[in-house]
Design goal:
The chain has 6 helices and 12 strands. It is an alpha/beta fold. The protein has one domain: Class I glutamine amidotransferase (GATase) domain (Rossmann fold, 3-Layer(aba) Sandwich). The strands form 3 sheets. It has a 7-stranded mixed beta sheet, sandwiched between helices. It is globular and about 50 Å long.
Length: about 200
């Protein structure tokens, strides 16, 4: 069973729908006992870094996430869910992230002809082999919606990257923790394959 964390963030239903297309049993929850028993946990999210951290703390899901990650069972962050796993974000100065992974979230720099937020399809490069991308060709396109991007401290955890006015760490993997800046649930067949791979790790 896959627990999808419900902390009043956007885009949760589309993640649930994608897993259901794959035939996976899911539950939207903020219940500690349900999270603890789950085979996998997903932290989706669209919105502001500060608001999201506030909601996680309000429901004490920050503690639940850290405890779950310590169990060694697979955990996936999506979009804002990726950013929250790291130390801090330029979007919300002074607000600390979950510190599960090391790195900073920066604003996509303004450039001529470049729209921010970045909304659309970009191809992926695979600097390191990642389990989420088994069976997916380098250069595959996925769907992004974001104004801020990850710069991971350790390049060895970066399994996918893309370019959009700067070099973006688009996906990371460290032990049982996985995360994508893009939206696999909105990335057609490629995205479904990524979620299928997560459900199988």
């Amino acid at each position: 069973m896959i627990a999808i964390l419900d902390y009043d963030a956007g885009n949760i239903k589309s993640v649930e729908k994608a897993f259901k297309i794959l035939g996976e049993e899911t539950i939207l929850t903020r219940d500690f006992s349900v999270i603890e028993k789950a085979d996998r946990v997903v932290l989706p999210g669209v919105g502001s870094f500060a608001d999201a951290m506030g909601h996680l703390k309000k429901y004490e899901l920050d503690k639940a996430i850290k405890e779950y990650v310590q169990t060694g069972k697979p955990f996936l962050g999506i979009c804002l869910g990726l950013q929250l796993l790291f130390d801090e974000s330029a979007e919300s100065q002074g607000v600390e992230g979950l510190h599960i992974l090391e790195g900073k979230v920066k604003r996509i720099p303004d450039a001529p002809g470049l729209k921010v937020p970045h909304i659309g399809w970009n191809s992926l490069d695979f600097p390191n082999k990642g389990r989420l991308f088994e069976g997916i060709n380098e250069g595959a396109f996925v769907y992004f919606v974001h104004s801020y991007y990850l710069e991971a401290k350790d390049p060895a955890i970066v399994t996918a990257s893309t370019e959009y006015g700067c070099h973006i760490h688009a996906s990371v993997e460290k032990d049982n923790v996985f995360a994508c800046q893009f939206h696999p649930e909105k990335s057609s067949a490629v995205g479904l394959k990524i979620l299928e791979n997560f459900a199988g790790v």
